[in-house]
């Protein structure tokens, strides 16, 4: 689960991290009202969407010469003018895709006198099985570009989970940044704070880009991106309350109600598969034969008839779907349960696109019998390769 920048900064501030004064607003009137409460004279007006690259993004409605989704303002009047342009319009960044995201809220905060910009993130180093700080002196930059062009400028500091962040760890991070004086002392305090937040809130990513050294020599979290482990949200009702469903795909929201692993994609062949690995292989083979999957959907190993029905309805609700491939290898999941769920869903919502079904494993013959005797216009397949070729051909009209 992702949250907005202003929510991430408030959360980190509750652990003791230094942030600027700021407020989230939802209207031009609120922007004017709250900007007047900030000391100025420099303000920053930030679009709040779940995507990076906001500063370099472009608003669809404003033309290519318009400013991006993060803007400096030097008066309350400028704040208001920017808010009027940004709210309700669609911001397109490298991470949103061409469709972009509508800006429904802004974060207005005090400007900062920046001396240096640094990069910091905390994530799980899966190679070592430990949390790790990823740090670089190239803050404010596209970190993927830095990793590609100058990988030597990115340093990973693994943390022993039994010890936490030690004095040696903070010293190493400070050394990478080249910090001294008050900034170094701030680092000794801040790095354990960020790690504590990461661990206690079950984050999967904590990114501060940039972490700034101000001209007065102090550190400040200038931007923050936080993602949480969805499997641990039951432990954090306060985090769940931060969820902004307007930033999520409606189909993904519906899928979460049934504990379905669903991710919307840009293709036109809907997929229903049991098992994440098999789902990935199914999407790969669809691409191999020249088409694109419309979704990743893993119904799980022990799905009920109701869950399968819900999954099928979610797929058919996507207007981009021009064909459906059901690929089930029955282990714990029984093929007859899949068949019954599909039939129930088709009877409820209808079937307006080609449907190819490949069933193998537990009760496969029974599942095929149920579908064959259902009267549905379904194409059966012998194996995954056969299924992929048939659905791609059906969608392409061959």
TrEMBL record:
Record keyword NADP present: no
Gene3D superfamilies assigned to the protein according to its UniProt record, in alphabetical order: ATP-grasp fold, A domain, ATP-grasp fold, B domain, Succinyl-CoA synthetase domains
Pathways per UniProt: Carbohydrate metabolism; tricarboxylic acid cycle; succinate from succinyl-CoA (ligase route): step 1/1; One-carbon metabolism; formaldehyde assimilation via serine pathway
Cofactor names: Mg(2+)
Superkingdom assignment: Bacteria
One GO CC term on file: succinate-CoA ligase complex
Catalytic activities: succinate + ATP + CoA = succinyl-CoA + ADP + phosphate; (S)-malate + ATP + CoA = (S)-malyl-CoA + ADP + phosphate; GTP + succinate + CoA = succinyl-CoA + GDP + phosphate
GO biological process, one term: tricarboxylic acid cycle
Gene Ontology MF annotations: ATP binding; magnesium ion binding; malate-CoA ligase activity; succinate-CoA ligase (ADP-forming) activity; succinate-CoA ligase (GDP-forming) activity
Keywords (A to Z) from UniProt: ATP-binding, Ligase, Magnesium, Metal-binding, Nucleotide-binding, Tricarboxylic acid cycle
Pfam families given in the database record: ATP-grasp_2 (PF08442), Ligase_CoA (PF00549)
Cofactor binding note: Binds 1 Mg(2+) ion per subunit.
UniProt-annotated binding residues for ATP: 46, 53-55, 109, 112, 117
PROSITE patterns documented for this protein: ATP_GRASP, SUCCINYL_COA_LIG_3
Entry EC number(s): 6.2.1.5
Chain sites annotated for binding Mg(2+): 209, 223
Domain ATP-grasp: 9-241
Positions with a binding annotation for substrate: 274, 331-333
Entry's transmembrane regions: none
Family: Belongs to the succinate/malate CoA ligase beta subunit family.
Function of the protein: Succinyl-CoA synthetase functions in the citric acid cycle (TCA), coupling the hydrolysis of succinyl-CoA to the synthesis of either ATP or GTP and thus represents the only step of substrate-level phosphorylation in the TCA. The beta subunit provides nucleotide specificity of the enzyme and binds the substrate succinate, while the binding sites for coenzyme A and phosphate are found in the alpha subunit.
Assembly with partners or alone: Heterotetramer of two alpha and two beta subunits.
Protein name stated in the entry: Succinate--CoA ligase [ADP-forming] subunit beta
Species of origin: Phyllobacterium endophyticum
């Amino acid at each position: 689960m992702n949250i907005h920048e202003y929510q991430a900064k408030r959360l980190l501030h509750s652990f003791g991290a230094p942030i600027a004064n700021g407020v989230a607003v939802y209207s031009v009137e609120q922007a004017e009202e709250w900007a007047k409460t900030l000391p100025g004279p420099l303000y920053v007006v930030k679009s709040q969407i779940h995507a990076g690259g906001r500063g370099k993004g472009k608003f669809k409605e404003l033309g290519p010469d318009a400013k991006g989704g993060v803007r400096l303002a030097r008066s309350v009047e400028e704040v208001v003018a920017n808010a009027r342009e940004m709210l309700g319009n669609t911001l397109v960044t490298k991470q949103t895709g061409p469709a972009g995201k509508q800006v429904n809220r802004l974060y207005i905060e005090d400007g900062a006198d920046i001396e240096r910009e640094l990069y910091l993130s905390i994530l799980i180093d899966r190679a070592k099985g430990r949390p790790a700080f990823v740090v670089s002196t190239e803050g404010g930059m596209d970190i993927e570009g830095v990793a590609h062009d100058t990988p030597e400028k990115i340093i990973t500091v693994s943390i022993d989970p039994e010890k936490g962040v030690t004095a040696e760890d903070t010293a190493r991070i400070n050394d990478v940044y080249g910090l001294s004086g008050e900034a170094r002392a701030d680092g000794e305090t801040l790095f354990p704070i960020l790690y504590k937040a990461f661990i206690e809130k079950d984050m999967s990513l904590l990114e501060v880009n940039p972490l700034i050294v101000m001209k007065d020599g102090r550190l400040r979290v200038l931007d923050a991106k936080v993602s949480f482990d969805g499997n641990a949200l039951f432990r954090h009702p306060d985090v769940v309350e931060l969820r902004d469903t307007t930033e999520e795909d409606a189909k993904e929201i519906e899928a979460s109600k049934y504990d379905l692993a669903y991710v919307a994609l840009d293709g036109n062949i809907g997929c229903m598969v049991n098992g994440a690995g098999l789902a990935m292989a199914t999407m790969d083979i669809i691409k191999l034969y020249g088409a694109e999957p419309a979704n990743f959907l893993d119904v799980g190993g022990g799905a009920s008839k109701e869950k399968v029905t819900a999954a099928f309805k979610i797929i058919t609700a996507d207007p981009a779907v021009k064909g459906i491939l059901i690929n089930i290898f029955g282990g714990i999941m029984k093929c007859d349960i899949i068949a019954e769920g599909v039939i129930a869903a088709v009877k409820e919502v209808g079937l307006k696109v080609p449907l190819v079904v490949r069933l193998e494993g537990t009760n496969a013959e029974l599942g095929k019998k149920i579908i064959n005797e259902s009267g549905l216009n379904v194409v059966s397949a012998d194996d995954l390769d056969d299924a992929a070729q048939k659905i791609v051909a059906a969608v392409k009209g061959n």
